């Protein structure tokens, strides 16, 4: 009795970029791996918008530090 996925199984399917554009639209945001993108474009620098490509809005989430909690230590075992 074998366990796991059958030989040759892959959770991925191949589609063309054109088909992907038909399904999600040419202007849709798609999440990709940073390392994959860096390898694809050849450098870790951000993409620069050209005159033919309108700039896209990228929303970033700023890390917020948790609120500080003030407290006072009291020793109840004073004799």
Question: Which helices and strands occur, and which strands form pairs?
Answer:
Layout: H1 17-24, H2 34-41
Question: How does this model look, in words?
Answer:
The structure is a single chain. By secondary structure, this protein is an all-alpha fold. 20% of the residues lie in helices and 0% in strands. The protein has two helices and no strands. It is elongated, with a radius of gyration of 26 Å. The chain has a domain at 11-50. It has helices at 17-24, 34-41.
Principal-axes geometry comes out as elongated
Number of helices: 2
Beta content comes to under 5%
Please state the CA-atom Rg, rounded to the nearest Å.
26 Å
| Helix and strand run | HH
What is the helical fraction, as a range of percent? Answer: 10-25%
Uncertain spans, ≥5 residues at pLDDT below 50?
A: none
List keywords for this structure.
single chain, 79 residues, mainly alpha, elongated
Task: Put the structure in a nutshell.
The protein is an all-alpha fold and about 80 residues long. It has two helices and no strands.
